[in-house]
Amino acid sequence: MRNNREISRWLFGFFMGISLFSFSQENFPFIENKGQLPNSVFSKVKTPGGSVYLEKGKFIYSFYNSKQLQERHDLLRNEDWIDAHSFSANFINSNPNSEIILSEKSNYYENFYNTENWAEQVHFYKSVSQKNIYNGIDLEMSFSEENLKYDLIVHPHYSTNKIKIKYSGQEDIYLKNGNLIVKTSVNSVTELSPYSYQIINGKEIEVESNFKLKNDILSFQFPNGYDKSKSLIIDPTLIFSTYSGSTADNFGYTATYDRDGFLYSGSTVFGVGYPITLGAYQINYANNSGGTDIGITKYDTTGTLRIFSTYLGGSKDELPHSMIVNNLNELFIFGTTGSDDYPTTTGCYNENFSGGSGFSPSGLGVSFPNGSDIIVSRISANGGNLLASTYIGGTRNNKFICFRARRLLSLSREVLCILPLS
Questions:
Q1: What is the pLDDT of residues 48-85, one digit of tens each?
Q2: Which helix (H) or strand (E) is 125 found in, with range?
């Protein structure tokens, strides 16, 4: 179906290069539905270039053209739309009363205020399962080595013959070297040839298995049979490819820690969906060109629990370059902006964007059509207030290139200034 409009010092180094999306995605990829998604969907998982929506007995794959999105962001595409494509995989005659179980809940959560029904404290989970998707057969889904996989567990004395998956909406579907290939107008999905096995006398015994595809309906074959008195696990893996090769929604740029060992990460965020927290200073993605806002997250000393998380930015691109925390646990962010509406505070050093000539630095995924200024911002210890924020720059382009400050900032209620380095 095509739609054309559409953490402690030792962890400090780790956070310098982390993609926040990958961090949360790898650990807790499945988000629950508390009203922010259609009623038929019980969970959603992000994939490269799109998402998979999980319903009882059905997967709905939804993808966008990553290359067109990047071109739009880099001002190389005039159209204000990008291609998108969705298709479904329906487990034929599956049990409509199967039991849905979401396992291993995250400590952190997200809130959704951009829907008719607000959804708060929406958690993420490590795995999901549908018990008795067919009588005597369970479906379990998880992430492994950055790939989405599902297991079909066939309990003793139940038949695999009832497992039939109907694919609809794709451009093409075929078997190649034992793998299932699903082609869309914007990408392809490969379902690797299933690895099937049984546990017999405490040992994992492989069972020869392969796909069978007829009339877009996928089923499983077992040429040498298997021991039907034991459970059988069928284990395919899904691999997603996009034209751009992009697999992340945001990239880590900088990190720091405070005297109590709490951790702070700064990243560039390329769209909505960054995991903001209740009461955060800026809950909405403000960029109107599909570019970057800054994403700021404070973690506990283990790096697993979010304390606060917020967007920070205006309608054009921003980059965070360095961060530091004072004795009051207030966070200072140093960066670059191309926005003339970047959030500043009353009485700051410079409330106005000066900019310069347009440019697009290579390899960063950002562009500054109206030039750039330095920005310095100070966020409260709870992440809910912007205490001070200012532009720094003249009529030519400015960017923050100093990553080391022996002295911090002097901030009053009216003026923000940088003290000389010593």
A1: 788 899 999 999 999 888 778 767 766 777 887 888 99
A2: strand 119-134
Q: How far apart are CA 368 and CA 109, in angstroms?
A: 33
Find where tokens 């003249």 sit: 394
Distance CA 238, CA 369 (A): 39
Query: 12-56 pLDDT, tens per residue?
Result: 333 333 333 333 445 678 999 998 899 999 999 988 788 899 999
**H or E, element range at 67:** helix 66-73
User: What gap in Å lies between CA 317 and CA 373, rounded to an integer?
Assistant: 11
Which residue do the tokens 């066939």 mark? Answer: 154
- Any residues with CB less than 8 A from the CB of 265 and at least 6 apart, and which? 15, 18, 20, 252, 254, 255, 296, 297, 299
Q: What is the mean pLDDT of the chain?
A: 81
- Residue 12 in domain: no
Clarify whether residues 311 and 328 are in a common domain.
Answer: yes
Residues in the chain: 422
Rounded to whole angstroms, the Cα distance separating 129 from 138 reads 7
- Give the model confidence (pLDDT) of 325-384 as tens digits: 999 999 999 999 999 999 999 999 999 999 888 888 776 778 888 999 999 999 999 999
**Region of residue 371 (left: phi > 0; alpha: psi -120 to 50; beta: else):** left
Could you tell me if 121 and 32 lie in one domain?
yes
Q: Say if 127 falls within a structural domain.
A: yes
Residue 301 lies in a domain: yes
Domain containing residue 282? 250-418
